[in-house]
Each structure stands twice: as C-alpha cells, then as structure tokens.
Amino acid sequence: MIGKSILRVEDQRFLTGDGRFIDDLELPGGLHCVIVRSPHAHARVRSIRAPGGVLMLTGEDMAADGVNAMRCGWVLPGMVEPPRFALARGTVRHVGEPVAAVFAESRAQAEDAAEQVEVDYEPLPLIKEEQAFKWARGERAATEAAMRKAAHRVPIALVNNRLCGAAIETRGCISTGDTLYCGTQAPHHIRRYVCEELGIDEGRLRVVSQDMGGGFGYKGKHYPEETVVVWAARRLRRPVKWIARRQESFLSDTQGRDHITRAELGLDQEGRFLALSVLTSADLGAYVSSFGAAIAGPIYSALLAGVYRTPQVFVEVTGIFSNTVPVDAYRGAGRPEACYVLERLADKAALELGIDRAEIRRRNLIPASAMPYRTPVGPTYDCGDFPKVFERALEISGYARKRARGRGVGIACYVESSGVAPSRLAGMMGARVGFYESAQVRVAPDGSITAYLGTHNHGQGHATTYAQILSAQLGVPLDRISIVEGDTAAVPMGTGTFGSRSIAVGGSALHVAGAKIIAKGKRIAAHLLEAAAADIEFRDGAFSVAGTDRKVTFQAVAGAAYVPHNYPLAELEPGLDENAFYDPPNFAFSNGVHVCEVEVDTDTGAVRIAGYWAVDDIGTVINPMIVEGQLHGGVAQGLGQALGEHTAYDEGQLLSASFMDYALPRASDLPFFESELDETQPCTHNPIGAKGCGEAGTIAAPAAVINALLDALDSLGVRDLEMPATPLRVWQAIMQR
Ligand code: MCN
Q1: Mean pLDDT of 555-569
Q2: Are 707 and 347 contacting, i.e. CB atoms less than 8 angstroms apart?
Q3: Count of other CB atoms within 10 angstroms of residue 24
Q4: Ligand 1 centroid – CA 692 distance (Å)
Q5: Per-residue confidence at 737, pLDDT binned at 50, 70, 90?
Q6: Which of 313, 433, 580, 676 could connect to 512 by a Cys-Cys bridge, CB 3.0–4.6 Å?
Q7: pTM of the prediction?
C-alpha cells in the first residue's frame, strides 16, 4: 500500500457533480449577509447610516455586545499589533476592510441594501514605514567579519512580488449560531479564534469545513467574516450566510510574499561561500493576520542557509505595515522567498566569478556526510543527500547541453521546513497555538475503520493516502477505511492543513493511533487464543501466536471488542478506538533541485517554458501519483509568480482586483513536467519517514524560471529582471540594456 499510485477515492464525488461546496449549503430561514467594505485605504469612519428597513450591524454593535478584537495566532517578541476588529471601530486601514454587515432575505436584496448604506469617511494620509517587528537570525558581527575577509563580495537587490490566492470557490461562511460552516483549512483553530472573540466555550461552537475548491494557504487563516456570521446569527436568532464575490476576494483574502531584500554573498577565490547577509523588508499589510509575522520572520529566516554550507549567515527582517490587505500564508509561505534570495545570488556569483552555475553550487552543497547539519540560522537538518539529488537533476534535464539562441536554463535548489511544526520551538518564537496533529482510529465491530484527523483535505488526496497508511499498517482493505476531516464535532482536536504538514504530522499521528490499535488488539487476541500477549504477533491482518498456526483475524478481534462475551473485562475496556496526538520533534526537511528551460522571443519579450525537470526528496512516498500531482500544481503556481501574477497597489488602491488584471497561468502556458523522487533519505524522526511535498514546486519554480530567463538574456547584456517577468518587462529589459 505504501508507494502505490492508487487512484484518488475522493475524485468520484467531484467528477460526478456530488461535491458539496460552501455555497451549495442553504439553511432554512436563513438571512443573506453582504459586507460593506471601505473604499479608502486609510480613513476615519465618522458615521454609518442605513435607511429604515435595512437590517445593518456595525462595529459599534459588536462593541456593545462585548466582542473582542481579532486574535492573531503568532506574535513575535516585541511586535506591534494594531487592534483589528471584525467590523471596523473608528478607523479603516485598507481598501476592503469590513465596515458594516447588512442582512436580507435574499442575496440580491442584501446587495441592494448594502448600496444604500452611507458611510462618512474622513480620509487619512497613508501610513509610512510603520514598523511591526524586527527579527534577526545568525551572528551579525561574525558574518560582517567573514564578509570583510572574502575575496569576492556579490550584492543583490530583489523584490518578491505580492501574490493572491485564487481557489475555484471563493471564501464563504454560514452560521446557525451553534455551528459555523466555512471553507477553512484549520477548523479547530478557527473555532478557537471565534470563541475567544465572542467569549463562548469552544465546546459550544462546531466548525464544519467540507469541499471548498482549494485553499492554497490563504484559506487557513482567521477572517473577520467568520466572527461576524456567528455573532450575527446568535444576535438575530436566524442562520446567516455570507459568500464572497470574486472581486471581494481580491479585496479581503490575505495576500502572500511581498519582500524587498538586499543581500550580499561573500566568497573565497574558489567560489566557496563564506558569509551571507540578508536584509529584508516584509510588508504585512494593514494588520498582523494569523501567521503573517511568523512567515515573514521565523519561517523565512530559518531557511536562509538553504542547501549550502555557508559558515556565517545573518538575516534581519523588518516587518512593516502598509494600507493594504493583510499578508499571510500563500503556498510556500516564506520558503519560496528564501529560495529566491539564495538561488539568484548563486547565479549572480557564478557570473561574476566566471564559474559555471552548476559548478559553484556543487562546491557549496552540504554533503550527506555532514548530516545532521546545524545551520547558522537555527534549524538542524536531520538528513538529505543534496549533492546526489543535484547531480540527478542536472542529468535528467541535460543541463550541460548546448542550447539554441534565445534559450536559457536555470537551476534552483531548495530545502523546505515541511511538517510544521515542533510546538515547543514555535512557542519559543511567539506562537499562540500548538502544532501537533491528532488522529482517532475507530474500528467498527465489523472490522471496518473510520479515522478522524485534524487536518483538512482540499485537493491533496488525504482520503486516499491516509487510508493507504492505515491499510498498510492494519491489513484492512482500502475500501473498508473511511477518512473524516473538517468537522470539530467529529474530530476530537486538530491543527489543520498548511505548511505541508499533513503527511509528516497527521500521517504520523495516524500511525501512532494505528499502533495503539495493534497493541490493544494483541491483548484481546491473547485472551481469545489463550496465550500471553507477549507471544502475539500481528501480520497480514491477523493476530497469531508466535511459532504456531493459531490465529484470529483483525475482524474477529474487532467483533470481540464490541461484543465482549469472551473478553478480559477485568483488565481491558471494551471497544477498539484509539486516539493519538503527535507533536513532531523537528521539521521534515524536504529538498530538491528544479531545472527550467525557457525560450524568449526577443522581439516581443514573450517567454515560453520549454522544459521543466524536478528531482525531489520527500522521504518515503505514500502515493507517487498524488505526489506528482502536488508537485505539478506547486510548479504551476511558482511559474505564475515568476511570469504573470502580481498584486498591484497604487496609493492604497488595488489595481489588480480581477482576473483581467491578475494573470494566472493557464494550462497552455505550462510544459509537460518531468519529475523524479529520491526515496533514499526517509525522515529520521517520524514513524513513516515521509516529508511534505505540497509546496515544493511553488518554492523552487520562481528562482528556476528567473535564472533561466537571465541565462537566455545574458548575451543581450540583461543582468536583472523582476518578477513577474511579463513580456513587457522582458522586452523593456532588452531595450534598456
Ligand atoms: N504525500 C505522499 N507522500 C509523501 C508526502 C505527501 O503520498 N512523502 C501525499 C500526502 O499523503 C497528501 C499529499 O501528498 O495526500 C500532500 O501532502 P503534504 O505534503 O503533507 O501536504 P498537505 O496535505 O499538508 O497539504 C498542504 C499543502 C499546502 S501548504 C498548500 S498551500 C496546498 C497544497 O498542499 N494547497 C493545495 N496542495 C494543494 N493542492 C490542491 N489541490 N489545492 C490546494 O489548495
């Protein structure tokens, strides 16, 4: 079962039109809610008025009900956290900030009513350089000293463009007051935040998140509308439904990336890296969203050693506020930004020192023999054979091949902190939540199994891969295993799906719960077989007495557990139902090397991806087909960042609020990807040896593409290109050289 490309069991539902998305849900007697949003980037709200007959609630009503400010999930030491309310109280800090909620019997009526709301704003100047935090990693003085001794110093200035997510279904929240239905990647976290704000016991709110057309990181965060609909449903004593219009998504979904970085690499005569210093300014938007600060600070900075053996690395991140939509996780979350800095620098250094771009990397890769390897920026990599993966990627991509004019090739090596996260480490850096995962394995009397996990499946194939893990462990056929996620009433506890954590953390919790099932099953089997528990073996779905042919099936043991007529009741509870919480001792360090070949039309600046090769080490692979799909999706998003996507603001006004302006890649823009997995380095600290794969492509692709483009344009004298490298930008770079 482990390592088999089993077709995704969940797809039948989607392909036959049986998906149940958030907007499919209609609650009898429900009201439709439309949010009135600020058209100003920064303003004082003087008054809000609605004509008679319009049912409207505002921040003042929330304040009168004692609703607390929104909570963010991770607060860095010394961080400034401007109070953020689900409905604005007094000021607004970005276009799209919720100001009032209007309710009516139909969506159309609510839209009309919202247009009648009159808000008197006093526009304020945009905030400038308002600092949220400073976060540093590594030794500043030692890095400066090493830099001074370097034979070569290579500086670079980079922009990591701001992105936004684009799930097929927009966000939505529906509440009865006792239950919140919403498309979220982290139902238990959302329950906690909403309950804290409304002052209700967590046991009294159920959060349900089913099909939602993708999440991409941004649906894992806490949003104002979640609190608004639960509060309004309680106050109005009617169900309340809010669904974002697409344009509203651009104005209210958290956005991603947005770094400005100046970095310098010091090298010796032979091109060996001696010191790296990185200064980054990270725009957090108007408020600190759930993990916005953590991604810009700890998560990004921890990966700035990358796959390289640089003895001194110093990183300083300044988090700043701006009058824009808050920034938070977007697939990759901090890791693509780190990879981009390192890989652009490696190429620039190669060019300046006259060393081949593969060769300069080869001279600096951390060898497998150095594992476990402690980086100067915090993490200790437990395993990985970076040079092996590297050489293989060069080989399958034909890196050394001579290329036609107008073509270029680029390399990007990455290492990723998947399997987020050891709770203790996160706590030391300001996290307000834990990062374990929980799994419950409930065996029915007939031997079939339902497993409940705190992660969330929104395209990753969990219903299949989790079942594969259990099937391999317990010998129960796949079609007798059901996976339940996304309902706080069914799943005892959970953290959610983000940071490519489900397999490494959720899968491990599942495995630990499965082991408890086997341990208890052995005791039941020992009783049935009249043997000592220590003599019972479990293999191929049956319990047997070691060295004999006496055995009892898993199904028979399950039956005995629930019909305990012949059962050791004095020493064992009936039932076969086990729970496990798994908190990872370390991150799972997925790594890989991606190579991209591009072809540039130098007359128009149009770029075609001519080839894309990836070799990834994600430890033990559960389902190669699903993993390949995850890698493809990730690469597609990474190519989107490199070539087309950009969230543009002008004086606080969003210029890219539709898909006419925000250029997602299309299928016809993408090549066939060639991907290989190296399974020789299983994760050393989790029971299944798996590392995450859900973000890998997004991390490596932008750097691989831009490096390839600069290679293609090298003979034309182009030395720098900003993302997204649209045809206009490429053409301008050629003209301005
Ligand atoms: N897998 C495997 N073997 C491994 C690693 C993973 O078979 N060694 C399988 C897993 O069992 C799982 C899938 O690959 O079915 C992804 O696992 P993992 O890497 O643990 O990532 P998560 O399930 O935690 O997914 C999160 C990740 C993130 S952070 C974003 S954002 C993202 C993504 O996955 N958003 C997605 N992939 C997405 N895919 C779709 N279709 N839609 C999104 O919104």
Answers
A1: 97
A2: yes
A3: 11
A4: 7
A5: confident
A6: 580
A7: 0.98
